[in-house]
Amino acid sequence: MTDIFAFLSRGRSIHPFCAKVKRDPLQTECTDDRSSVALCNLIRHESPLPRQYQNFDSLAHVPTGEEAYYGGSVSLADHCPYIQEFTWRSRNVVVRGSQCQFEDNNPKPEKNFALESYGAESKCFDHSEHMWEERSCRQTREWQHWGSGCYKYKCEKGRLHIVIANYSYPCFYAGQSLNVQLMAGGWLHKGAVICPSCKEMCNEEFEQRGERCKVSEDSPPLSFYPKDELKCGSKAAVHLVNSLLLAIAISLMAAGRSSR
């Protein structure tokens, strides 16, 4: 076993190494400098790795006894798994990259399920353990990859503010879950972004301005943050009722004809 296992067994951070098996649905992370959305390159190999490259006694979602098959995809790194930037592809054509600083990496509006914003003022922030969800009056859908995303941020009034869909969400302590429920593109987007520490993101900027991060404190009530509701309207309800009544009438007419 290598030092990676030692760090894992103590519950310590192993970044830039990682222990999430690359599988569907994809669960992304952030690079250490938060410059990019990234994936862990931990995969299942066709045969057990040499003993010196086996780093795990157990892995989430891996049957007991099969850990020896799992390691990083890069042999030059002795199969130590680590997080890597990546590209999204469609039919083997690169669609966009995962570096936060480039506006060209913004997802198309109809695929921006987590309300991300790429650009010079953006960094990578973790999501909660729950998938992001989109709802309309007719359907609900969950996107099959999540885990982290790129968002603009600001350092103001002693706090880190994460900007999501043009709303500014202040962070009150590291690890705070910012619950997002906002309408965009005709869909209600629901998910959560996790606050890093103010010092990590803002300390340097605040020092240049002669300011400092405020001490951590309890987050305000949920009503403090913006929250949209899905409004489907009475017209939609009336249309649905009329459609059901019409279907029932047609069924009754068909039943009456068949009984003659």
UniProtKB/TrEMBL annotation:
Keywords in alphabetical order: Hydrolase, Metal-binding, Metalloprotease, Protease, Zinc
GO cellular component: cytoplasm; membrane
GO annotation, biological process: cell adhesion; proteolysis
Pfam families assigned: Peptidase_M8
Top-level lineage group: Eukaryota
Enzyme Commission numbers on file: 3.4.24.-
Sequence similarity: Belongs to the peptidase M8 family.
Record-given protein name: Leishmanolysin-like peptidase
Species, as recorded: Culex pipiens (House mosquito)
Lineage: Eukaryota, Metazoa, Ecdysozoa, Arthropoda, Hexapoda
